[in-house]
Amino acid sequence: MKKYLENVAQNIKVLEPKLIYGNQIDNAFIEKSLENFEKSPNRIKERELFNIFGEDILKIDVLKFARIFKMDTPRCREEIKNETANLVQKFIESLNDKEIILADLLKEKRIYYVSYKAFLIQIAKIKPELKDSLNKILENLNVKSCKKIVEDLFKFQDMQTLKETAQELEESSEAKELINLFKDLNSRKTDYLLDRLAFLVKELESDETKEKEMFLLKNLFKFFRSVGLNPIKKYGDNFEVTLKDIQDGEYIGEPFEELEKKEVNFERLGWRYGRVQISPIVYKEIKKEAL
């Protein structure tokens, strides 16, 4: 996580001093408004921000900023404060609790844009090792740009959690034999049996004469799910992707050009046992016939 934020800070486009100063005002306004959500934006400007920035701040229209980002009523400011506190609390808890899936937290409801920046402001205050890189990010990115940073940070943290949990499980003597069995079930030596069974279900769905076979296969996959074995992707029709879309797996085909889209299908669905990935997703390019 620290390395990720340092890389973001290093690669970020540094703004002109005037714009950095403007972002510093925005950041301070967000922080002070959420600490004192019952105070009006102008009251925050005249008291808290005046103490930080001096007379220059009196020329700034903080109410305009508040209206754009829905911080102009005490109710909205309180909602943003609670939302930010929830994000921060879950994030800190997740550092010690591998069962918390942060990416799911962002899907639960619509989150205020300001909450993303407020989240980064709070993390910079309570995690000293992240302070320098986060401050550089906060000074050079506006409110909306912070949304991507938080989403990536949450995904990154979940990936680290997944790796740690997988390693612990793989090192457990009780689970080793079962994991190796599942790996064998979708390996070259079994001709990728799990994938073949999943693809067979898709083929039989449209054949009413294969009702018995479908019943047996569906019960087999129900058993797989009950023991924690699941495909990462679902078999489907061909679809278009960019290189970024398939970074979660391996790719068979011609190299991508910048922003190019290619038609692919699943050569392998990828499988997990619990949170241990036992085989990778493999995307395969669909070659277009020459005219």
Question: Key features?
Answer:
291 residues, alpha+beta, five-stranded mixed β-sheet, elongated
DSSP strand count: 5
Count of individual helical segments = 12
Q: Nearest-angstrom radius of gyration? A: 25 Å
The amount of helix comes to 55-70%
Question: What is the distance, rounded to the nearest whole angstrom, between the alpha carbons of the first and last residues?
Answer: 49 Å
Report the average pLDDT across residues: 83
Structural class by helix and strand composition: alpha+beta
H and E order? HHHHHHHHHHHHEEEEE
**Biggest sheet layout:** 5 strands, mixed
Brief synopsis:
With 291 residues, the protein is of the alpha+beta class.
Please explain how this structure is put together:
It is a single chain. This protein is α+β, with helices and mostly antiparallel strands. Helices cover 57% and strands 11% of the residues. Strands 1, 2, 3, 4 and 5 form a 5-stranded mixed sheet that branches. Strand 4 (262-273) and strand 5 (276-285) form a beta hairpin. Helix 7 (113-126) packs antiparallel against helix 8 (131-140). The longest helix is centred in the middle third of the chain and has 27 residues, at 145-171. It starts with a helix and ends in a 6-residue tail after the last strand. The model has no long low-confidence stretch (mean pLDDT 83).
